[in-house]
Amino acid sequence: MFASLSDRLTATFRSLRGKGRLSPEDVDATVREIRRALLDADVALPVVRQFTAAVRERALGEEVSGALNPAQQVVKIVNEELIGILGGETRRLRLAKNPPTVIMLAGLQGAGKTTLAGKLGRHLKNLDHRPLLVACDLQRPNAVNQLQITGERAGVAVYAPEPGNGVGDPVAVARAGVEHARSQGYDVVVIDTAGRLGVDAEMMRQAADIRAATDPDEVLFVLDAMIGQDAVQTAEAFRDGVGFTGVVLSKLDGDARGGAALSVRSVTGQPVMFASTGEKLDDFELFHPDRMASRILDMGDVLTLIEQAERAFDADQAQQMAAKFANDEDFTLEDFLQQIAAVRNMGSIKKMLGMLPGMQQVREQLDAFDEREFDRIEAMVRSMTPLERRQPRIINGSRRARIAAGCGQSVSAVNDMLERFGQAQKMMRQMRKGLAGGMPGIPGM
Ligand code: GDP
């Protein structure tokens, strides 16, 4: 699921890495790639348009974050927009104030309704409810029996019409099922309904009649994620013919390209609430837009890293730094120390880089880098006087010896550090002209 879309998006982001700032051409090229990737994943055209327009506008303008580089910023924007089209918040079941809560399932034949009834029953039971499954799919031979077997497996009661009476009236069965629940103390009723292979008027009418007769608290439209481009049309037909309050995506374990998942919310206005990810009872989960977006972006924990960077980034400090540059002041050892502290805020460097995709090589280099180096540098700077930190030029031989003694390190280690600092300072001077925001890195390290 989403594999190809993930690959395409990740490749797009990768091509932005290392860029200091994004030109309008970069943004256009990126948005074009995202657009193609979404279309190839069968995302509905209006959704693609809306999505890419939003990404484009945000990438071009408004938010220039101090904490993130352009590539990270684009990832962040795409992630947020994905969460948006997936519905934002996780939408949970609405339970009736006066039980029983009635949940009706609707969808095409083979979409996974009966399977879902069992999963939902089990899920509700785990939440200490007393669910009852009601078999109203009287169309498909064996559907009643299948629900009974599923219910048994899930340890959930099933209400079914008497055998031999199987061609009865599904509306009457639904009504009787809800009555049965009320009288027997079941607090949630899940009504399984009939589907057809294609959308047809008779099936819609039947589902609409069941809805009218039982006044459900939730009508869940079960959508097979594998049906690709037909998903949108089917969803629209059910929206208009029966109406629903939420969507369940089934067969998300398959190799569907993701179009249904990404389109259905925008097209129908109703949120995806659950995901069915296999044939077994446990292959079922609440649908969390944020988690689904990170799954699609397949960015490891890069999003966590971005959040951390934003948190660690001290806006005041950045402003001070910018002001310094504007005033043509020099980069001092105090700034150096501040930068080290900022990086430390983000947790261990190695762990941080471990979260970035495609950073294998850097990670290997880092394995060779001793993180205690930071401790040593910090100790040296701390054993300097404030004046020395601000004006490193004055650190002569005798001062070096004193500093080395003060932090328990060799004079050559102090020399080494000052040399590195000198390089950093030079780099900062060069950067001063081209400073375009962005988190100050740790030059020379
Ligand atoms: P219904 O006609 O809507 O009631 O659909 P069923 O519940 O009978 O499911 C149709 C077929 O899809 C059955 O073979 C199920 O085992 C299978 N199925 C249902 N949900 C999933 C799922 O999430 N993943 C996979 N791989 N198969 C599923």
Automatic annotation (TrEMBL):
The entry's keywords: Cytoplasm, GTP-binding, Hydrolase, Nucleotide-binding, Ribonucleoprotein, RNA-binding, Signal recognition particle
TM region positions: none
Enzyme class: hydrolase
Enzyme nomenclature, EC number: 3.6.5.4
Compartments where located: Cytoplasm
SRP54-type proteins GTP-binding domain boundaries: 271-284
Reaction(s) the record says it catalyses: GTP + H2O = GDP + phosphate + H(+)
Residues that, per the record, bind GTP: 107-114, 192-196, 250-253
Role noted for this protein: Involved in targeting and insertion of nascent membrane proteins into the cytoplasmic membrane. Binds to the hydrophobic signal sequence of the ribosome-nascent chain (RNC) as it emerges from the ribosomes. The SRP-RNC complex is then targeted to the cytoplasmic membrane where it interacts with the SRP receptor FtsY.
Free-text comment on this protein's domains from its UniProt entry: Composed of three domains: the N-terminal N domain, which is responsible for interactions with the ribosome, the central G domain, which binds GTP, and the C-terminal M domain, which binds the RNA and the signal sequence of the RNC.
Family: Belongs to the GTP-binding SRP family. SRP54 subfamily.
Known partners and oligomeric status: Part of the signal recognition particle protein translocation system, which is composed of SRP and FtsY.
Protein name: Signal recognition particle protein
Protein species of origin: Kineococcus glutinatus
The organism's taxonomic lineage, starting at the top: Bacteria, Bacillati, Actinomycetota, Actinomycetes, Kineosporiales
Gene that encodes the chain: ffh
